[in-house]
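ingest -> validate -> predict -> emit
validate: passed (alphabet ok, no gaps, 786 aa)
predict: started
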Amino acid sequence: MDKSQKSKDKIPAPVGESIPRVDAREKVTGSAIFTDDIQFGPGLLFARIKRSPYPHAKILKIDASKALALPGVKCVVTGKDYPGFTGLYLQDRQVFATEKTRFVGEPVAGIAAVSEELAEKALDLIDVEYEPMPAVFDPEYGTTKEAPLLHPKLGEYTVANFIFPQAGTNISNHFKIRKGDVEGAWKNCAAIVEHRYQIPHVQHVPIETHIVIARAEDTGKVTLWSTSQSPFAQRNLIAKALDISHKDIQVIAPYVGGGFGCKAGASMESLIVAIAMKVRGRPVKLRLTREEEFYTAFVRQGLVAYFKMGCDKDGNLLAMENKFYWDSGAYTEYAVNMTRASGYSSSGPYDVPNVKTDSYCVYTNHPVTGPMRGFGMPEMHAGLEQCIDELAYSIKMDPVKFRLLNCVQGGDIIVTGMVMHPTGLSECIEKAAKAIDWGKKEKASAPHKMRGKGIALMWKAPAMSPNAGSSAWVELNEDATLTVGIGGQEIGQGTHTVMSQLAAAALGVPVDHVRIAKPIDTDVSPYEWQTVASRLTWSMGNAVVNAARDARQQIVDMVAKAWKEDPDDLDIVNGNVISYKSEESISLKDIVIYGMPKENFNGWIGGPIVGRGSFMPTYVTGLDPETGQGERAVVHYTTGCQAVEVEVDTLTGKVEILRAVGAFDVGKAINPELVRAQMEGGFVMGMSTAIFEELKLKDGVLQNPSFVDYRIATTTDAPSKIDSIIVEVPQDDGPWGARGIGEHSMVPTIPAIANAIYDATGVRVGSPPYLPEKVYLALVDAGVVK
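emit:
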């Protein structure tokens, strides 16, 4: 056998080689563990939470004596029982409020009873006295000296070293970018555009609400069954908040029925552990109602954004000056990092020599915000990409041509001073524009309707700690099948399918020989930072590949020793070890467990094969706190483009999305069908936030906490045609060059639709959502409709 016929996955695997494909998309649903209580037996208790009705108030007294006297109530827990703080980046939140409450719905007490109905009844018997306090409902106002101080102890909180809170203010993080000479650049601009945009809070609205069951034993062991994207992060946060050893907390996380970020970290899981520790030996279940899901689980940050940008007469971008006020709500454990992420991406995917950005994370008395698909990028790009369009029109240049002229390329020095890696953004623009028939004006379907096209770009880096790590193990079975252990969660994106493909390719076995060990269990699964940031294919994928290659090397070394050959002359192809020198071949079956006999059966070599692998980016550097400049701010950027065609009904203001195109550079599509599914799903979710979604808050009180008044897009609203175009420019440190795509397809949707509305009507509607009444009134104000 010629050496040129070796497996294409010979270590190290060259970028761009083939990956085992699977045809079917993985089907994922919420686990029955949370709807079927039988397995927990008759001892199961049910928890309900007493919540504050005030956006900001002192707690004067909590009297739970009447509730405790109710037969069937087993315990009441308050903040005095567990006064510790929690938070991923900034530890500013307690499990139950102690001295005061900061948003409507904040937990002040928890009850465990023999039924959910009884627990609900007991809540009314808990007497809580409050003293209402002045509140903050606007993030801009929150930064002023006149605003009430919501966290007087901000300077005392534990905080990550890359987050910069300002003690004595409501600013929990201030991220700055100072690149070039912005003030000096304005005089050279032929056109300057300035705008303010306000992006509302929205909800994640997963199909499965937050549900958790906890059991604490007399031994000190706590087991948590959780609808979680972040089992290891939950374990860490709860351990610190409740002063429990990490070894004594086990988090079991089955498949999740939708997350989109709201089931990352810990939002309500600490509550149930605190309650369970008061009724040791009995499992306790807490299920958020849909209404509670709307305002007590994480919501997406609100944003007030100011953009100023200018270009020369030839269309070259010269300067940007941006100011972001992020409405993080009452607590900011994730929002501080999202504020940072929007800062280091604040130029958008453009080569701009002069940039000044101030990104503020501001406490308000709104619901607690957390990560949501896109992690600040949809909100930030919503205004930025509309300004880019306006700037192009102001110098009479086609928006596609303007973007091709200015879009970031490999080798450019981007906003943080980092050198941009190779990217296929230009190709994305060209392919999206061609697919939408850019430049061709389509006829409207009726005289009272107007048709137009819009385009928008995006970029996004995995927003994470600089040392967020992944690990994996690969265990071979007697029949040469593999069990792969990972700590990343399956939330419908198909990550388990992709991990199976990567493990198979790296080891040299058919993909149907691989099974993922599940559910994710912190007692037995290898560590994974979190299932967030669109990082699993890249980060966990690297760990899986490393584990499979470790197992592969053990096998090759064993066989080489038994055959007395050089390991470099051996390979594993389709589950068989082959020698390119002697042309010997042997199946992996049995030898991966029992080993191989020495010559004349004079003893044995080898043994059960278990491969181990880990991955952590070690090359991310710090940024100067005053300038935001550094050698490498992030691991990489995924870039892309969306184009849409819309029709606007001038009689009603209704916007109909007729067709959409997405083109994204994913590095390498490990599973093209899953990549396309992410592109389609992300567009529909982004479309939903563009034309429907908004949490209506009045003095901190949510006015629309149900699907009656809060509408999300359905299949009937989605365009009949969505084209998903895959562009592949390999990432140097990705498995086979892969990057993530889970969040990115939602990022440019709002501005693409806004730009299409303008192309159709000549009217800028401004901030989303583009509800019919808002669009209609904008048309009336502009004189388009009489």
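The mean pLDDT is 94.
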